[in-house]
Amino acid sequence: MAKKKRVLTTREAEAVVERRIEQFGLGALPRVRVTELADGRWHVGWDRIEHTVPAMSDDDWRAWLERYVGPLDASDLQTTES
Asked: What is the pLDDT of residues 53-66, one digit of tens each?
């Protein structure tokens, strides 16, 4: 039986992006806003782009960000210290 993945809070979801921005600078990823809707889904927005998506686990959120927002893998980014 597969273990059910814990869904992130909206604050935890935003923190995934904020950590990348802190590490690699503002150009690495845009700031992403995540708001929980009444039905439990998330409203996700950055720049002028908006999506409504199901609430996600950490792994699912990272995969979604990689696909729609930008790379999260350190090998794809340069640190601000370099």
From this structure: 999 999 999 999 99
* Angle value at C-alpha 10, between 75 and 37, nearest 5 degrees: 135
Tell me the residue type at 27. Answer: G
Q: Which residues contact 25 (CB under 8 A, 6 or more apart)?
A: 80
d(CA 11, CA 78): 25
Which positions ≥6 away from 27 have C-beta within 8 Å? none
Decide: residue 43, CB within 10 A, 0-12 exposed, 13-18 middle, 19+ buried: middle
Q: What is the pLDDT of residue 18?
A: 93
Please check the confidence at residue 34 and state whether its pLDDT lies above 70. Answer: yes
